[in-house]
Amino acid sequence: MTSDERRDRINRAMSSDYSTGTRRTSSSIRGGSSSRSRSSYSSGRSASARRRRRRRRGGINWGQVIVAILISALIIFGAILLLKKFVGTGGGEKPEETTEAVVETSEEEVTETEPETTEPAREAVEVLEKARLLAAQYDYDGALELIDREPSIKELDSVREFIASVEETKSTLVKQDVTKITHVFFHILMVDTDNALSIDRWGEKQAGGYNSLMTTIPEFERILQAMYDKGFVLVSLHDMGHMEKQDDGTEKMVKGEIMLPPGKQAFVMSEDDVCYYEYMVGAGFADKMIIGEDGRPTTHYTDKDGNESVGDYDLVPLLDKFIDEHPDFSYHGHKACLVFTGYNGVLGYRTDETYLPENYKEHKVEGGHDVEAERAEAVKVLKALYDDGYDLGSHSWGHRDMGGMSFENLKIDSDKWEKNVNSLIREATGQGADILIYPKGADIGDWRGYNSSDQKKEGCLQKFNYLYDLGFRYYCNVDSTQYWVQVGDTYIRTGRRALDGYNFWYEIENNKGRFTDLWDDTSKIFDYKRWTPVPAY
After folding, report:
1. pLDDT value at position 75?
2. How far apart are CA 508 and CA 451, in angstroms?
3. Which of 172, 258, 407, 414 makes the best surface tag, with the fewest CB within 10 Å?
4. Which residue has the higher pLDDT, 275 or 152?
5. In terms of DSSP H, where are the helices of 230-265?
6. With contact defined as beta carbons under 8 Å apart, do 296 and 311 qualify?
7. Comparing 54 with 158, which gets the higher pLDDT?
8. What span, in angstroms and rounded, lies between the C-alpha atoms of 195 and 209?
9. Which pLDDT tens digit goes with each residue over 85-118?
C-alpha cells in the first residue's frame, strides 16, 4: 500500500466516523423536538403543564451532551491519527490501518538495504575490496583466487565486471627484463635542513657530509611523485630472482617473472644505515623507529631544542603514506629494502653487545643500557616492518670497506653482525637476512662474476663463499649507471644509484642527463635550502 493510499484510507475512516456521528446527533435532536411538541399539545394550556414545559426547557439535556462528547472524541482521535502519520508523534494504540502501513514500509526498507546490511553482503563487499587492492598492486592471480574462495559472490554483477576487467588486463601484461631494473637508494632523510647543514653547529666536515650524502624530505616526496608519474613500480630484490632446487639437489638462482601493464617499469629502492646513530640525535634527523598507534612503523624525532614528537620523519612512514594513496606504486605490496649496521644498534635501539653494562664506558652511558629490553623493542619494530612489506638486510656490522679488508677481518665483522643483528631479524621474521648492501659501495669483487676464473680481485671467492654460507644471496654495490644487474648461478648482484645532494647538484651543474629516466628536471627535485656548491664526500 502506498503512502497516498494509506492517507486516503485514514481520511475515509475519519470521514465515515464523523458523518455517522453527525447523523446520530441530528436524529436525537429531531427526536427530542418532536417529543416536546407532542407533550405540549396533549397537555393543553394548564398552568401546571406550562410549568412542566418550562422546567424541561430550562434543564440539562444529557443526550445532547453525550452526542457532543462523542463528536469531539472522534475529531481528536482522527487528528491524532493524522499527526502520527505525518510527524511520527505517538501515544495510544494504532488503528488497524496504520499498523498495516508501518509493517509494509519496514518490509520495503529491509528489501532495499539488505545487500548492504546482511552479513553475507558485508563479507562480499570486503572480499571484493581486498581483491581490488591485490589487482591494483598487480597481483591479478591472487585477486582471482581470493574470489574463487567465495563462490557465493561470483554471480554478483560487480564481481563479474571485476573478473572480466582483471582477465582483460592480464592479457596485456609485459614481462620485465630483470637485467634492466634500476636500483635507487637513500640514507636517513633530513627533517630540519637548516639544523643539519649548520656549519657553526656541526662543523664543516659533518655538515658537509649531510649535505652531500643525505636527501631532504621535500626531495624524497618529489622523487616519489616524479617516479610514479613516469610509471615506475616498486619491486623487491626477491622479485628479480629466487633460488630454485635442481634435480641434482643443488640450488640455482632463477630469474623472476615480473609482469606489468604496458608503460610500467620495475625498480628497487633501499635505505642505508637505518640505525639512527648516536651522533645524529638532535641534528635534524629522526632518532628512532617505533610502532605507531595504528600498529604500523613510524618515527620518533627530537628537534634541536630537545622537543620530541612522532610522525613522518623518515623514508618508511613517508613511503607508506604514498603507497596508501597510490597502491599501484607497489608490486604485490612490496616496499623498500632497509639495511642495518650493528655497532650502534638498530632502529635507534641500543641492541649491540657493546652497550652491555660491562662495556658502558665505551659509550659514556652511566650504568650502560638495558640491552635485553632494547632488543625486545627492536624485534617488535622489525616484525612490523617485515609485515608491512619491507625487506631487511645487512650493511655489515662496522660499516667498513668489505672489498678492501682482509678475509679475517671480514669474517670477524660478519660474525658480529650475525650475532647482534641477524639474530634479531630471525626472531622477528622466522628467517635470516639474505641481502647484503656493501658499506661505501665497496664490492668484494670486480665487475666479473664472483666465481669467475677471470675475477681479478684478491680474496673475492673466499669472501663470497663465507658470505654465501651465512645465507646471503643478493649483493648490492654502488654504480652511477641507469642499471647494472648480474645474475649468477647462486646470487643476484645489482648496482645502486645514490639519490643525494651531491648527485643532484652535479647533475644541475653539468647537465649529464643521468636522471632523465627517473624524472624530467633535477632542478625541480633539488632542495634549495642546501648550501651550494654541494661538496663531494
Report:
1. 65
2. 40
3. 172
4. 275
5. 237-240
6. no
7. 158
8. 13
9. 444 444 444 444 433 333 333 334 333 444 444 6
Strands 297-302 and 308-311: antiparallel
For residue range 259-278, what is the model confidence (pLDDT) as tens digits?
A: 999 999 999 999 999 999 99
Q: Which three cell numbers stand for residue 257?
A: 617473472
Round to whole Å and give the CA distance between 482 and 194: 32
Higher pLDDT, 298 or 84: 298
Cell of 167: 582477465
Could you give the CA distance from residue 274 to residue 22 in angstroms, rounded to a whole number? 93
Burial of 26 (0-12, 13-18, 19+ CB in 10 A): exposed
For the chain, what is the largest distance between any 2 Cα atoms, rounded to a whole number of angstroms? 154
Please name the helix (run of DSSP H) or strand (run of DSSP E) that holds residue 302, with its range, or none.
strand 297-302
CA 205/CA 440 separation, integer angstroms:
17
Which residues are CB-neighbours of 283 under 8 A, at least 6 positions away? 195, 196, 202, 206, 210, 304
Distance CA 403, CA 438 (A): 8
Whole-model pTM: value is 0.78
8 A C-beta contact, residue 381 and residue 421: no
Q: Residue 225, exposed/middle/buried by CB under 10 A (0-12, 13-18, 19+)?
A: middle
For 229, the grid coordinates are 608519474
